[in-house]
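If your schedule permits, I should be very grateful for your opinion on a structural question. I have a record of one protein: its chain in single-letter code and its fold written as discrete structure tokens. Would you kindly read the sequence against the tokens and tell me how you understand this chain to fold? Thank you for your consideration; the sequence and its tokens are set out here.


***
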Amino acid sequence: MTFHETKLQGVYQIHLEPKADERGFFARSWCQREFEQHDLSSVTVQCSVAFNEKKGTLRGLHYQAEPHPESKLVRCTQGSIYDVVVDLRPASATFQKWIGVVLSAANRHMIFVPGGCGHGLLTLEDRTEVFYQMSEFYYPELSRGVRWNDPAFQIEWPTQPLIISDRDRTYRDFK
């Protein structure tokens, strides 16, 4: 794996290093030692899959509050997504800044989202599936979010979302 630091503090885009032969390829997608070498959470306590039937489905921007913030390793295993991370950590040098990257089954890239950052995605194809590894158990009472189009962040989405849950559509303004 190769780790590419983004403009957000502690957020990395991670690329696989496939070893190819006549059968196809083999690549490591997780290594505790490599994550620790980059000072990234190397704990995985839970994995989840989000399947999205339609292009234009928006999920997020979600995070889990203290005392159990969760880091996430996100990968698109079918289709493609525009993946967004917003830094919501007040002490961070990149507080309220955001990045967006395309994750797809074809490029096999991953994004590491540290605890305290909001995460969301917009599907770019029908029948898109996303795989998550999380560093913390889910606590519904600590589940939080910020609105996808909150003016505090000015996120530039590639297209207008077509499907959004009521919860994600109605988060209050961040400020």
